[in-house]
Amino acid sequence: MTDDAVKPPAPFERGLTPCPDCAEREVLIYPRFERLWHWSQAGSIVILMFTGLGMNGVHGLISFELAVRLHTIVALALLLLWVFATFWLVTTGSWKVFLPRVLGLFAVARYYAYGVFKGEHHPYQKSLAQRLNPLQALAYSALKTVVFPLVWGTGLVYLTYNFWETLPNAPFLLEVVANIHLAVAYIVSGFVILHIYLLTIGHSFRDGVRPMITGTEKVALTPEQEAYLERHETWRLVD
Amino acid sequence: MGGYSLRAVALALGLGLVWAFGAAAQGQAPQLSQSTTDHSKLKELQKDFASGPEVTAACLSCHTEAATQVKHSIHWKWEFENPSTGQILGKSHVVNSFCGTVASNEARCTSCHTGYGWTDMSAPPPSEASAVDCLVCHDTSGQYTKLDSAAGHPPLEAKGKTITGADAWAVDLKKAAQSVGAPGRENCGSCHFYGGGGDNVKHGDLSSALFHPGLDVDVHMSAEGENFTCSTCHHSDRHIFAGSRYDVHAMDTEGTGKPGQIRQDVATCESCHGTAPHKALSVTGMKLNDHVDRIACQTCHIPSFARGGVATKTGWDWSTAGRMDADGKPAHEENYVQGDGKALHTYLATKGDFEWGENVVPHYAWFNGQVEYTLTDKVIDPTQVVEINRIEGSPDDGRSRIWPFKRMEGRQAYDAGLNHLAYANVWGPTTDTAYWTNFDWAKAIEAGMAAAGKEYSGQYGFVDTHMYWPITHMVAPASDAVDCRECHAPQGRMAGIAGVYLPGSNPTSPGALIGIAFFLAMASGVLLHTVLRIITRGGKGGKTHD
């Protein structure tokens, strides 16, 4: 998003140390496409969960036929969105926010496991270039490289059964594919629960959701970043 | 504006006049016969016939090859050599779970033979060309019929019963002969709708309801639908018809054939509807088209059989036959009222106990079109249910699909010494062996076995049997097709069918359980965390990132 690529981010930018001379400013940090992506994905996942549970016989609130139709169309649409999102992440360089990092990971983990009960502050300070804490980055990278590919991979194999049904043991293989799809789908729904729950920590739930709606959030800006934004990207500064 | 509308009126008037003249001209045109022959004008048919064979002789004087053609058909021979198993099948050989076997009961059973005078099953049908019954298939006067126990001959006086169970009338053979045409559903139906001795007794999907079915009963045969006759699908070539129950096309990958060609060789759904009959450009249609290699069309499109108000016999226990009432007369009970209001026998001293069903959900099984019959020379295990005709097929043979069947549950006589299914002489009003006349199984079975020329130990018993009838008629409108959820559900219609993965049939599959375990672990972690936060009061009071 910015030209950080030129020099490596300072330690505080990686959330390791408090930034001594930084100013907390409300900055546009989730561009419109990322918000659209997030909410489309959220809506899609809700529909996929609901229709998937319906198809699997867990509830009968929707006809099987409609469930299959919605599940298929929404899944394909979401895949298309992921293609666009991947393009976006690569071309804008914002894929780097999802890189897992070890430094600071322990502090965040300790906070959730212990500090939060003591009323401590959240140890991570969001910066312009790094809006995710190390634990978040780890979770998202696992989600994006393992969990989601497993879901859509098995989903595509499942959907295209008729192209490979002539393989030996195809019905059994289909059952394996379907079971993996199902297991991972339940894990995704567990993630959704965690994701929503974590919004209640450190600030109110509303405050947690707001940035993904308005796109802006309070982050620490160095004087240089602040000056740059004041001079060239005033539209990103809200106050 | 005014001028414009005037012109429009004039134009409309003019068009109206042209149309009126056209219609009048059409009305004046002579009614053209579809056929090139008006049989009522043929001098060969201008006479009073004294018997069925006399009519046939007249037919053959022009249609010189017709009898020879008929004599090569299963309709005539009642014999079918299964090309795959080598079994000799057909009515003259097989045992069923209804009236059993033809041998020793000939004149009753051969009342529906497409010929006259076949009174001995141990010999082929009569050899004279005039023994072929042309009228039973080709009469269109609607008043030709056959007596129920005269080896195929028509009633020439109002005495006895016809093959449909109606009181007989004197058939006008001249009128029938002059009316001949292509077979209609009344022709086929007068025998095939009454198989097993009554309306819809045998097949379950072939009943008198198909004479005038509503659209909901049969989209193909309903006048509101396609108004097909039987032979619209059951094409014939040289008097041999496509679509035999003894050798079923369980899977047709050929489809509609070449452009412009109408396939005449099979009676499959695919021969008209193709191999991808559902809408190709919708998710649902594509998914349904994915089903056709494993699921027969009939499985979804015939949600139940014996529809339209006529029940089918689903159970027949011969072992209880013979009970007399208080007056010493053969007992009978009529405890089933079918949809059209008719009461049906549930017990007859002559036949035992019956069960009936309407709108019956079929039995489903993998089927490759082959059926292995338990013929009377096969040793059976009387402690098990004997499958009269075992359905062949498996998910792995590449030519089976899941088909719907009527499963007839029977209990019938067998040779308890040799463990063979038994022949029984049931019909014979003047004999001292026929069960229906004398109520004596020992005599009836002995006579049946003797008539069939089979070895008999002299001991008999009764054995439970299953007999399967592929369901393929009474196709419902698409909107009434079996709902996905009927199968894609725990304990759905396909419960017990192996070799196919059925999404939705097992919400607690291993994958689901693993996934649910993960989900529960995550969810309980969240719950625990919440509880701890509340206890420690650290949660809501938690500081922000600031």
Automatic annotation (TrEMBL), chain A:
Would I find Ribonucleoprotein among this entry's keywords? Answer: no
Gene3D superfamilies in the cross-refs: Transmembrane di-heme cytochromes, Chain C
Q: Which controlled-vocabulary keywords does the entry list?
A: Cell membrane, Membrane, Transmembrane, Transmembrane helix
Q: Name one GO biological process term.
A: respiratory electron transport chain
Q: Which superkingdom heads the taxonomic lineage of this protein's source?
A: Bacteria
InterPro entries linked: Cyt_b561_bac/Ni-Hgenase, Di-haem_cyt_TM, Hydrogenase_cytochrome
Compartments reported by the entry: Cell membrane
Among PANTHER family, the record links this protein to: CYTOCHROME YDHU-RELATED, NI/FE-HYDROGENASE 1 B-TYPE CYTOCHROME SUBUNIT
Name it: Thiosulfate reductase cytochrome b subunit
UniProtKB/TrEMBL annotation, chain B:
Domain of life of the organism encoding this protein: Bacteria
InterPro entries (alphabetical): Cyt_c-552/4, Multihaem_cyt_sf, Octahem_Cyt_c
Q: Name one Pfam family in it.
A: Cytochrome_cB
In the UniProt record, does the keyword Transmembrane occur? yes
Show the stretches that span the lipid bilayer: 512-535
Q: Where is the Cytochrome c-552/4 domain?
A: 229-301
Q: Which UniProt keywords apply?
A: Membrane, Signal, Transmembrane, Transmembrane helix
According to the record, the signal peptide region is 1-25
Mind telling me what this protein is named? Octaheme c-type cytochrome (Tetrathionate reductase family)
Question: SUPFAM superfamilies given for it?
Answer: Multiheme cytochromes
